[in-house]
Amino acid sequence: MLISLLLAAVLACQTAQAAYVTVTVDGQELPGEVLAREGVTYVPLIRLLDAMGGWEAEWNQKERTASADTGLFSLSVTERRSHVLANGYAFDTGADVFLYSGRTYVPLRSVANLLGAEVEFVNWSTPIAVSTVPALKYTEEDLYWLSRVISAESRGESLLGQLAVGHVVLNRVASSQFPNTIKEVVFDTKDAVQFEPVANGTIYDEPTAQSVLAAQMVLNGTRVIGDCMYFFSPALSQGTWIRENCTYFTTIGCHRFYR
Q1: Looking at the domain 19-132, which fold is it?
Q2: How far apart, in whole angstroms, are the C-alpha atoms of residue 182 and residue 170?
């Protein structure tokens, strides 16, 4: 009982120090209180789900967990965790989920990205704009090769890491510097083999279930690493050309990503 009271007091104190900001989703203001503290914007999960896809959330009091079905994957969000689950696979949110005024609050950027939206911070006096990313028109062949390159390049990585690899492939498809189909990007050899699994044959291995989900999510709008088009694993490669010619963006698991 004492621990619960102390936790409530801490959250109340933190919330009291938070700023209130405005968020729009596809041009419509998100209802409910939006909180910003320590550089992170938090929104009520149920409001975000409704605004982005009309999805409904259920609350399990015993597990302290909110859950929803997005049509593509099941989402599970547990209080005081810094990750959420997509079909049971952990996706790092970078900050803890918490309860405030009887609602589950989640870090906006990471959860919106997971659900298939981009988030643009303008400034404190104007809205933070959330824009849903339309699902791509893709074929079974697209899913086949994307899931395989994700699995072969990042088997054992987190869902976030696998989404990032898939995102790089789609960024290349959209770029005039690379071929314009997923298969052609995967097997591109214009400036040498682009993906090691093509050279060692693991591109043909059966993909993991998580890799298939990651491919489906990326094709349906999940975006996690901006405009990055390169990555390498320092444990397997020096990445000399990438380091000398590209701008470092972030590290996820074993991979470093570059623009």
Answers
A1: Copper Amine Oxidase; Chain A, domain 1 (3.30.457)
A2: 7
